[in-house]
Every structure is written in C-alpha cells, then in structure tokens.
Amino acid sequence: MTIHDTKLTPAETCTTDPRSPYLGVKNLTKKFDESTALDDVSFDISKGEFICFLGPSGCGKTTLLRCIAGLETQTAGQIIQSEKDISWLPPSARDFGIVFQSYALFPNLTVGDNVAYGLVNTGAKRREIAEKVDGLLKLVNLSAHKSKYPAQLSGGEQQRIALVRALATSPGLLLLDEPLSALDAQVREHLRREVRALQKRLDVTTIMVTHDQDEALTMADRIVVMNAGKLEQIGTPREIYEEPATPFVARFIGETNVIPLAEFEHGHARSGRCWLDISQAKSADETAPSGTDVIAVIRPEDVLIAQKDCLNTVQTDILDVEFLGDHLTVHVHAPALDSDRLSVRISKQQALTLDLSAGTRLPLCLPSQALRLLNAT
Amino acid sequence: MIASLRAPRQALDNDGRLMRLFLLGYVAFFLVTLVLPLYALVSTGMTDGNGNFVGLANFRTYFETPSLVRSLTNSFQVTLISTVIVTFLAFAYAYALTRTCMPFKGAFKLIALIPLLSPSLLAAIALIYWFGNQGVLRDVMMGTSIYGPTGIIMASVFWTFPHALMLMITALSVSDARLYEAAAVMKTSPLRTFLTVTLPGARYGLISAFIVVFILIFTDFGVPKVIGGNYNVLATDIYKEVVGQQNFQMGAVVSTVLLIPAVIAFAIDRRVQKSQRSALNARSVSYHPKPNRTIDTCALVFCVLMSVIIFGIVGMAQFASLVKFWPYNLDFTLKHYEFNSAGVGWFAFFNSLKLAFWTAMIGTPLIFFGAYLVEKPPVSGPLRPFVHLMALIPLAVPGLVLGLSYIFFFNHPLNPLVVIYGTMGIMVLNTVTHFYSVSHLTAVTALKQIDREFEAVSASLKRSVLHMFFRVTLPVSLPAVLDIWAYMFVNAMTTVSGVIFLYGASTILASVGAIHLDEQGASASAAAMAMLIFYASVVVRLLHAAISRVLLKRTQAWRLAK
Ligand SMILES: Nc1ncnc2c1ncn2[C@@H]1O[C@H](COP(=O)(O)OP(=O)(O)O)[C@@H](O)[C@H]1O
Ligand SMILES: [Mg+2]
Question: What is the pLDDT of residues A292-345, one digit of tens each?
Fold first, then answer.
C-alpha cells in the first residue's frame, strides 16, 4: 500500500454502517492561553446511550461539553455527529439541546412560553405547539404550573422545565452540565431516576457532566472519567469500579487501598517486608508486571478478616473505626507493608464477633484474585 | 499551504454575520464621532494658520507664553484643592448614609443628588449672590473676592459632590461585615477599626471618586467662565482662543494640553477598577450598622449642614431670578423669565428640550444595543473589545475638547457630513458621544446580571440572537434602559462644555444662553435660565420614576413573583 492509497476523501471513508458511533470525539485538544483544558481526548458514543463525564472540578468536563455544543472552539481535533464533521459549525447549526447548572430559564416568560420558545419557529401551528407544550409538561408532571413564572417554582421544578425545554425540539443529543448539583440531596435522588426514565423513554443520546460519582454510577450507561484535561478511562459503571484502568480512577471512584509493589518473582510481588501472591491478580495491561512503578489496588470490601487458608495474610493493628450505618470501615496500620494504612469494610454482624478497640491486632487477608495491578504512572 | 497555516475558525451563522456587521457599524460610528474628530483636533494643533504642518512649534509657543502656562498651573491648583475637598465631604456623607443609623437616610440621599439636575454654572451664579460684591454674606469674605479660585473651588465642590457621592456609596456598601465582626471579637477600638478595615475597604472607591472628580473639574467650563474673573484656567483659555481670538490652532493646542492629564487619569482609574473587581468575592456578607448615639448624631448634623448648603445654593438662584433689582429692590417679578435680550429667548429652552429628547431617544437604544453586542453574543476576534474600549474613551475626553474637535472635523470642506454642521443633528451626535461611557457601563452592568447562557440556550433552540434580544434581554433590562434614558436627558439639558462651539443662531441652548446672559451682565436672567433647566430636569426625573413604576408593574410581573 502506498501512502497515496490511504488518502481517501471524507466521503469515501464514511460508510453507512448502522453500528457506527452517533458521536465521535477525536483527539480533541483545547487550550486557554497558556493552560490546557483538554488534552487529546478521544471516544465514541452510540445512539441512545447515557454518558456521564465524571472528574474532579476543573478537569475540563464543562469545556468538553461546550466544545461538543460549539460554545467553545477546540484548538485541535474533530467532532463527528451522525457521520458529519461538525467541528467548525456554529452552535445554531448543530443538533443538540442543553441544560445548564443555572437552568437559564427566561425569567420574564411563563413556564409554558419557556417550553414553547424553540417550537414557535418550527413552522408548527399554534394549536400543535400548545398541545406539544402540554404533552411535555405532563411528561414531568408540571402541567399545573404552565402559566407561572420560573421564580415561582422550586429548584427541582425549574430543573425539569429546563429539561423539557431542551427536549421540546426533539434534538438528537441532549447535553446536561451538572443539572442536579444545585439541588438538595432528596430532590436530587428523585430527579436522577426521573431524568433517566425520561431519557430512556425518548431514547435520546445524552451526555451529563457531573463531579458526583454516585450520580454517574447510578445513571450512566458508560462513564468517561477525566482528570486534568485527559481522558482516564471510558467504560460501564461496573468496569470503571471493578477494573479501573489507572490509579486515578481507582482512587476517584469509591474507596480503595493502594499497595506499592517492588520486586516480582514467580507470581509473587514484594511490598515492604511482605511477599504477596499476585498469581491470580488482574492487570490493566496484559504484560507481566515489572519495575518499581507498579501498584496493587484492592477495595475495602474485598479485604477479608484472615482465615487459615488465606495466602496473603498481613498482620495489622486497628487505628480507628468509622460507623457508617449498614457497615463499618476499620482503618488499620500494617507495618509490614509499604503502605502502612489500609481500610477494611466489615458488616455489622461481623463486627459483633470481633474486638475492634484501637490497638487490637487484626490479621487481614488480601485475596490474590481481588488484587488489581496498575502502572503507577 | 496558506489555508493550512491559518488556524481554522468556527463558521459564522447568519446571526454571527449580522452581529459582526452591527459591530462594524459601531466601529464606524466611533470613527466618525470620536477618532477622526480627535485626530483632526490634534493635527490642527500641529499646523499654522494656513494649514502647513509645523510640528510641535505651536506647543513651544504655548509653553513660552507665561499667561497660558499660568492657566495650566491654575487649573491644576484649583482642581486639586476642590477634588480633595469633594472627596473628603462625599466620603463623610456616604459614610453617614451607609454606616450609621442616622434617620432620614432616603431623603438625605435625594437631596445630595440635587446638583446633578442643574448646569454647573448655577452654583457659580448663586455663589455670586451669596458672596459677591453685593452678596448677602460678602462680609465673611473679609475683603477677598469670590471671583477667582475661591469661587471656582466652592462651585466645583457643589456640582461634583453627587458624582463622588455615588461612587463612594457603592464603595462603602460592598464592605464585608465579617471583617467588622472579626475586629469586634478582637476588641479593636472604633478608630482602629475605621483605619484598618473601613478605609482600606473603600480605598478603590476613594481613588476612583478622586479621579472622576478630578477629570470633571479639570475640564469644566461653566464654573470658571462665570465666577473665575481674571483667574484663567485651561477651559476658559480654549474658549478665549477660539471664540475671542479665532485662533483655532492655539485652541487645539490648549485642548491637547487639557486632554492629556484627563486621559492619564482615565487610564489610572481603569487600572484601579480592574484590581477592585478581583478584591471582592461572592462570599462577602453585607454590613448592617449598629446604633451609636455619638456617631449617629454627628452624621445627622453633618448631613443637615450639607443639605442646608445645597438648598441655599439652589434657593438663592431661584430667589435672585424672582426679584426686581438685586440687592436694592427685592420685590417679586417674573421679568427675568422674559429673556428678551439679544440672541437668547425661550426658544433656547425649547431647543434644549429638543436636544435632550433626541439625545435620549437616539442615545439609549444605540448605547444599550452596543453594550449588548459587546457583552453577549459570541463573536470572536478583536471587534468586541475594540468597541468596548471606544465606548469608554469619551469618559476621558472633555466636552470642550470634543466640541472643538467637531468643528475641525465636520466643518472640513472635504467632509460630506458638513451638512449637519450648525444643526441640532451635530449637537445630538456630540452629546450622545459625550455621555456615552457612563450609560454604556450602566448597560454592561445590567447585562452582566443576566444569565450568560441565555444566548447558548437560544442558539440550541434555533432562535436568532435578535429574537432573544427583544423577547428576553430587553424586557429583563428595562429598568436599566429607563435609567439610561433619564441620564441622557438630564445631562443633555445641563451640559455646556460639549455644545458651546456647536450651536447656531437658531439652535442656541438654554445652558449656553445662561452663559451669554451672564456675559451680558444679566445675571438674574442667567439664574432664571439655569432654574428652568433645573425644573425641566426635576420633571423628567419625576416622570422617569412614575413611568418606571407603572411600566414595571405592568410588564414585570415576573419580578414580583416569588
Ligand atoms: N473561558 C476560559 N478561559 C480560561 N480558562 C478556562 C476557561 N474555561 C475553563 N477554563 C479552565 O479550563 C479548565 C477546565 O475547566 P472546566 O471545563 O470548567 O472544568 P470542570 O467543568 O471539569 O470543572 C479549568 O482549569 C478552567 O480554569
Ligand atoms: Mg463544570
């Protein structure tokens, strides 16, 4: 194959494969003056998926969302929607609905007029518009508030109005920037379910930005985990939780114990004065671990109280105990390991059989199959 | 190759193209009303009487003429003294209004704003009736004359007081209550709290007020013209060079000399305000004063005193315009309101109303939409910051300088716009430009309070930016729009310096008429004319309040919804 052969025009490369992604982000980079807000981010989204961008604040989630909407222009990279390159299109030429954290409801228009805002210029008749508005308001149980002003509604109600306003024009892509973060905990939980149900019902491809891992884990089909402008991992909530690809993901999602590893020999690895059996440990990449930049991670709920047949038994001393309702988290000191602090999650029942006062000896088991090996860098 | 080297840009949609076109329109507007006239002014200063380029020769002449240089030092002298006094008084008054539990705060605030409603020369005329050679209180002058620096300083303090006060009130109202609580917890003495918390917190406001007042007084023409006597300042020099001696070159040179300190002061002020913005944060808690008998009483006494002075000035102008022959015959008469002297009549007053009306009608939409373009729709590139900068520059350009520059630019034989020379049109254009900046800032502030995502939502719903503007932005900003209208109207009524070179025989204005009446020795008529302006301003302000109220009630139900 010569170099010329690979130079296909876009039209030729675009096949009409039904499984081709609905939205493709390719090598997206965004620089603000000096700082890099997005660094070579790539991923694909299928039609009808619910995607969460998850990461600490300032990691570039909003910037990524705004690039997809055309509200920011990328420094480099491409965005493909429905097989069309939209990278340089203005927002008005793209197909999306958007809900901001502030809701951005028009304060001087009634709820009904807010929802109808985008419908009026679709050429629909007045009666059709009124029917559509009624239908949308019914969808979120807010029909009674049609002629009220936004300021007369609660935060959660305003939120839902903003949602149906964005959905009124039946966009192919729904973008939500921390839509629930301004609400109190109870309303938030209720709305999570409602947003998700609405999304499933309308089958609209959705991207939601959040810094709340519970929100992402409970709502998303797939999660895009970001850190400092880089994409760390994309996967289902289960994959993200059980098979973190990087130490950042392991630490950011849920709680985790990190054990630095040094030497590797015959399916064992040394940490401090302990040799751990890692023969059944899973690894993010398939190559055998080596060098000094490898860590093992294990979730607190996977750490067991040591039985006789445990291979990786570690002696520890209890530091303190946190009572968390349905379970307890015990923090222990493990002098033999390189990481001298571990967390163990135990049930209430189990706690009854143990002496958990500070300073007590507690032998723990780190099951080989529950360990996950990651490159620390 | 070239195409790949250039960074790609987002394609413009129809809205984007339209907004860019509008922005270009504003660039053209500022070119015609600001940049080219100022260029014409500065370049005229570098030519001789026959239009030959002579470089800085005129400036050398200027600095070698002792009488002209004396005006420069005079200007600095009276301006600095007045500015220090105003800043001090306004700070004390603002402190009383914001930091004490003195009664009648609302009334005192309204009273303090009274000087805004009259031309600056009203104070000068009134002071002459109080302290002049035949004044009521001439004995307290102990033989010195009110004509000259003393009079200029007193009148300047009067008319710039509300300008400084408003800035000061803003600066003092934003202070953070938490700092005072901290100081109280640490048992800090009131004086120490004042020195370590209050003053530093208000320092940006103080600096800003100082600079704004400095520019106002440094460039004012009405006051020194009426009460300056033989004491010349830059502003009166320009008038004398141009009107008296027809020496346009020297007029341009003096204008440039006047312009430079104003521009420097303006630049300093912009910097100060930038740093102020970053010094505030959203978590600050607003401060509520606690009663303190001594302080509250002192504040009350001070505010009463200031109010008496304000009423004394305005009241004297009113009184003097209603008596037969000051000070010998104090019988009531309306003859000073007949204005049957040469060239000035009631038509001057109606001209002023016309000018004010058109300035407000044209200026308000122009300025508000300009601020919208600068603030809201996403047009990248240098156009928006450029228009914003242009919109602020009039703040630094003295009215007299702007007016003179219009002579050079619009009266140029090659300028097709020469047709508006000597008409009401050129005065409207000049006045809109002269008062552009403050209104622009008012509009920008109002627009900043509107959710910045509205345009994005609207675009995602495929509605045009203009639809968004008329359906949401404009209704939501209606109070600010009405404020701008009233501000433009009142300023157009009271301005002297901007239009003194631009009126024609049939378009003479009330404020200019007052100057001429005073020049002719008809100071009672001058006072009468100034009072007419004052009452017109009062009426417009009252109308503004009433209309705002009705309109807001009718169209802004959503504001009251809670
Ligand atoms: N308009 C902007 N100008 C300069 N820097 C920006 C701008 N918007 C965002 N940033 C920077 O980009 C980074 C990512 O911001 P953002 O996307 O808002 O983060 P997140 O939404 O994940 O909290 C931050 O460091 C932020 O300071
Ligand atoms: Mg964000």
Answer: 688 899 999 999 988 877 888 888 999 999 988 888 999 999 888 877 789 999
**Tokens standing for residue B554:** 């009718």
CA distance B358 to B364: 10
> Hey, which CATH number is domain B1-43+340-557, 1.20.120.450, 1.10.3720.10, 1.20.950.20, 1.10.540.10?
1.10.3720.10
| B183-220: pLDDT as tens digits | 778 888 878 888 887 777 777 778 888 988 998 999 89
Pairing of strands A173-177, A97-99: parallel
Residue nearest atom 12 in ligand 1 by C-alpha distance: A37
**Residue among A63, A176, A178, A227 to mutate when testing ligand 1 (max atoms within 8 A of CB):** A63
Binding-face residues of B in 464-493 toward A, CB within 8 A: 471-472, 475-476
Q: Which CATH number fits domain B72-275+285-329: 1.10.10.60, 3.30.870.10, 1.10.10.10, 1.10.3720.10?
A: 1.10.3720.10
Q: Lowest mean pLDDT: which of A354-358, B347-351, B524-528?
A: A354-358
Task: Provide the shortest C-alpha distance from residue B65 to chain A (in Å).
Answer: 52
Q: What is the CATH number for A312?
A: 2.40.50.100
Write the residue with the smallest CA distance to atom 20 of ligand 1. Answer: A58
Residue A136 CA to ligand 2 centre (angstroms): 28
Which atom from ligand 1 is nearest to the alpha carbon of A226?
22
CB–CB contact A108 B460 (8 Å): no
The per-residue b/e assignment along B370-402, b for 16 or more CB within 10 angstroms, e otherwise, is: bbbbbbbbbbeeebbeebbebbbbbbbbbbbbb
pTM of the predicted structure, to 2 decimals: 0.88
- The reply to whether B558 touches chain A by the CB within 8 Å rule is yes
Contact A117 B462 (CB under 8 A): no
- 3 state SS for B213-257: HHHHHHHCCHHHHHHCCCCCCHHHHHHHHHHHCCCHHHHHHHHHH
| DSSP β-bridge partners for residue A347 | A327
Q: For residues B401, B402, B407 and B409, what is the CA-based torsion angle, rounded to 10 degrees?
A: 120
Task: Tell me if chain A has a CB within 8 Å of the CB of B381.
Answer: no
Interface predicted TM-score of the whole assembly (ipTM), two decimals = 0.83
Residues whose CB is under 5 A from ligand 2 (ion)?
Answer: A 62
